[in-house]
Each structure stands twice: as structure tokens, then as C-alpha cells.
């Protein structure tokens, strides 16, 4: 029988990573010197999540999909994606600016033979003073202007820079140029894809290799959305003891749940799995059959589609992201 699943984190050492995965989220990533990311729910080739607890402990997410199919992910989701889990859930600690980058959409990714595109969102969990990020351009830009800015190293002059604070949400459709700025700890929800086109890396040199990281400036040109938009930060109303929708896209829907009292969630109307991502505080997730799992900030649980209701019991104030495939 399926039950709320937690997975062993997959730790990623990054040139820009820091220590907050350990000091803030309490995850021991030794022996890595600087952990930039933990992949919490992943079906990326070579990085497939493994169940951490319960009768299915040791089974991979791919094993579960092959065995349980629609009971795990929802009949509609299985029909659409087959034996491929459609979302990748991460926590990211930026101890330095990430590279300026862009991801292709599905159409371009398929054309180039790199699987799927990558639309994603960020939820800011913790931010150092004056922390900032980039989402999109600060004005309308032509392809020619962009190419020139990359060539003469003035790309930063045309980027839209946003201050970032805990609770802020940024939705980044495929094609939007972006980077996470120094001092941010965030949760990322994205399509299952690891295709990134690095545009500029601040001339960093890898301490191990002594080399700069590879850039993909030519590949990026046709992947970019050059339009300027009025508002890059996702506006949503923050409420206590009431779920609020923050993001609605073709790939995932994400609601922000901030509660200090017990609440029951009925998922009968969804033909999808749900991932609960604890971004502050802590809670216990109780499911039928006596199954329960405790989550604290920086932990996730995958609620299979066959588990149609859960009770969330907060430990004081807690905020959880609730995400699923529409």
C-alpha cells in the first residue's frame, strides 16, 4: 500500500554553494565542502530519488512508478508522462551568485534532443541583507542587442534585478534569463530536466580544475524570451490558516499554506500526486491507515495520488508549499 513518501536527499557540491543546507536546514552533507543544492524528489537520469522510510524503503522513485503507475502519480499524469516523474524538487543555497542562465522550452529541447524544457519557480526561504536575484530583462531587448551585450561583457546592464525576501515567489517560464543572487536560500520546483544554458559566470575559476566553467552562449540565443514584462515577482496574498494559490502553469500548480492549527486536505478532486515542501516551521502529515510523517523546514513528502486525504498538524507556525500537476 502506498503512503506519504520521503526520500534520501541527493547533495550537490557547487562552486557557488555554502553551508546553509547544514546550518539552516540541518542536513549533514559531509564530506562535500560547499553544498549548493539538495535534490529532494528527482527522476533525473543518474540522480533518481530513493525512499527513506517505511515498507518501501530503498526503492527508487523509478521503481515505484513502474510498479504503481497512476496510483502513484495520478491516471491523467501517468497518461501524459508515462514512467517519468514530471517534477524535480530542490533546495538551493547560493553563497555566491549563480551563473546568468536560461532554460529551453519543451519544443526546443525536443528539437535539440535534450529531453524536456525547464519551467521553474522559486520560493525564498531565507535571505541575507540586501540579497537580490535576476529575473528577465529590464527593458525590451532585441536578439542583436543581447548578442552584442554578451560579446562586450555588458550583459548585466540589461538584466532586471529584484530584491528578495522570505516568502517571495518568482515564476520563471522556460526562456526567461535568470540567476539566483548571493545570500539566498530557496525552494525550487521545476520540470524534470537538467538542461541549462550558461550565459555568463562572472569570470569564476573552479578551484579544483583551475578552469572557468563552460558557457553555452550560442545555444542560449534561440532559447531566450527577449520581451520585457511589468512584474517579475509573483503577487499572491499571504493568509494565515488558508491555502493561497501562488503559481498556476501547465506544468505545476503551487499553493502556499501557512497554518498554526490542524487542517484536513481532501485531494479526491485531484488526479495527481501532491508534494508537500516545508519551507518554515514544522508539521506532521497524517494519512489513512495510521501512516504519519514529520517534516521540518527543508523537508518534503510525496503524497501518492491514491492517498486522497491527509491531515496536517502544525508544530506552531508552519508554511508548506503544496504542488501538483494540473
From TrEMBL:
The protein's matches in Gene3D superfamilies, at most eight in alphabetical order, are given as: Jelly Rolls (2.60.120.10)
GO molecular function annotation: isomerase activity
The alphabetized UniProt keywords are: Isomerase, Metal-binding, Zinc
At the top level of its lineage, which domain of life is listed? Bacteria
Which CDD domains does the record match to this protein? cupin_PMI_type_I_N_bac
State the Pfam families in the record: PMI_typeI_cat
Q: What is this protein called?
A: Mannose-6-phosphate isomerase
The record lists the organism as Spirosoma utsteinense
Biological classification of the source: Bacteria, Pseudomonadati, Bacteroidota, Cytophagia, Cytophagales
